[in-house]
Amino acid sequence: MKFGIYPGGRAGTVCSHPPDVAAIRHLVDDLSGGRPFVIREYVHFFGDATPPDVVTSLGAEHELAHLTMPDGWYVEGNRELDLVVSYIPRAADVSGWLTFLDTAIDRYGHLTRYLQVTLEPNFPIPLIDGSAPGVLEALTLGIPHARAALDRRGLQHVRIGFSVAEPPEWLGGDDQFWSYLASIPYQDFATHVDYVGLGLYPDAFSPVAPRGNPGDTASLTTHALHHLRDGSLLRAHIPPSTPIHIVENGTPSGSPRTEQAQCDSLSDMLSVILTEQDSVNITHYELFSLRDADSGSTEPTGTLGIVTDTYRPKPALTLYRDIVHGTGQPPAIRQP
Hints:
The protein is of the alpha/beta class. The protein has a single domain (2-324), classed as Alpha-Beta Barrel (TIM Barrel). The protein has helices spanning 21-32, 52-57, 94-108, 135-152, 175-182, 217-235, 259-280, 315-324, and strands at residues 2-5, 37-45, 79-87, 112-117, 159-165, 195-200, 244-249, 282-287. An eight-stranded parallel β-barrel has the order 1-2-3-4-5-6-7-8, surrounded by four helices. Helix 3 (94-108) runs parallel beside helix 4 (135-152), helix 6 packs parallel to helix 7 (259-280) and helix 7 (259-280) runs parallel beside helix 8. It starts with a strand and ends in a 12-residue tail after the last helix.
């Protein structure tokens, strides 16, 4: 399995400090140990109707000028860029979206190894693509459009996919999304999909059962993986040979939780993912995130990092580094 991380220190509208480039360099080098390592980044299409303050709230004013780190960093030291192009206009604008995809590819295609077209289009909450008008067309037209655009530029090596949040009971149901994909002929959509990304936060935003009981973090992780592979993807004509990338996975450490509890939860999730990687065809895992967005926040999104917002390591940093460095076995799930 190939591992990676989001380095930017922002979660939605939460970001307490600008990124420290030197600290990121040191931490990512330490995590990767020279191995192939995926770096996740985001750019957003807002359309013309989105107020400027919304763009600013997401820190997105300069995304086409630069990402978190200098351009060359993303292709040095065995790093691979996983670039998310998010669709969140206030009004449907598929034509403008396709033009933006071209612009993003022109700007970052030469740095990119994985191109994710839309962010969780099955998840209808504010500032996530599933809430945007026209998102289903943006996804199903955007994937083949991006493939053609990359091919025209000689970038056939770039893998294209999309991500979803699973399973649907966390979201209040997403049957409409998968029914729409089921209606699209294989040759018009699924044949162009190189991977499907999964955003996985089983214990981040709602209570779960104690460890070792039905409904705990480990069992929810198992359910999410198999629900996606054995149910949702088959409906969308996406075969078992198309790999799953865990493109976001995290758990918070903020009050009333603790940094050690975060480490234990991450251990449980990684144990399941590593154990199930062959049966579910998982080839990539990317942690969200390197740094807390705001270590003083009581919101779960503030403390998903494995270091604090001042880059102090938490116990989860050592856990993840040891897994990336190949200690040989998944961490054991601790029993109560």
